[in-house]
Write the structure tokens for this entry.
Amino acid sequence: MNVRPASNTESSSLPDKPVGRRPVSQRARGLSHTHPADVSLHDALAALADPVRRAIVRELGHVPDWSKACGTFDLAVSKATRSHHFAVLRQAGVIEQRDEGPRRLNRLRRTEFDAAFPGLLALVLSESS
Amino acid sequence: MNVRPASNTESSSLPDKPVGRRPVSQRARGLSHTHPADVSLHDALAALADPVRRAIVRELGHVPDWSKACGTFDLAVSKATRSHHFAVLRQAGVIEQRDEGPRRLNRLRRTEFDAAFPGLLALVLSESS
DNA sequence: TACAGTGTTTGACGGAGGTCGATCACCATG
DNA sequence: CATGGTGATCGACCTCCGTCAAACACTGTA
């Protein structure tokens, strides 16, 4: 399998602000990501089998990458539970997160996740409610 | 949506033994099926999020329809648990069952389920172990 | 009728995980 | 430095569900 650089955000594909001067905030150190290709089918299904997490994914599917912080989601759970669900989605390779000042921005790993589990993300994104 | 005949096995597409003389065994009365189109994404994902149930689906993907009874699966659980998992898969529209003498034969609802949840079944069937 | 084979149902148990309030850590701004 | 905003962590609670043994139900055969 194609080996990926482990310690690299290797994400956005955004021609972003020159990352040279932005030494990764302190909080971002605890941010461990998992590439979809390293995720088992069980973990992927278990992650998406929760209605709150699917709501996050759907909401994330309606906005551009890195445009939505964790707190801006319309969820009927406490922020502790919210934080837990984001961690699960991140470790299942569904989303990617990046710290921008005090808040944590999110991005759906559309192409990578779809490459690992074809059609799965589309099912969630096309879910009605 | 296309309304389906509710009280019809509407299944096998097998040019079978003339069903005229076979008045549906007594046990088959408790056999309630759910068409994949009537299954929510949540129920579908929840059904396939269990390793034992995925093992059943995979094993069922390697044999022809109606060729495998519940007891012939290689599962490391008791027959009570086994029976439970088959019921979950049936109510999730993943499998269809039919009584043949003392045993219950199974069939994977490939086309119907794939029409309702494109790619989902393929993911499970292509799972390695 | 009796028996063996197959599968379901029931009741109980235990663990996994979703949930919350409280607390803590980090960031920006005044 | 103090404050408010955002998010993570901790500990506890509780529900759900996977699990099993036991008992039951149905089928075919002797």
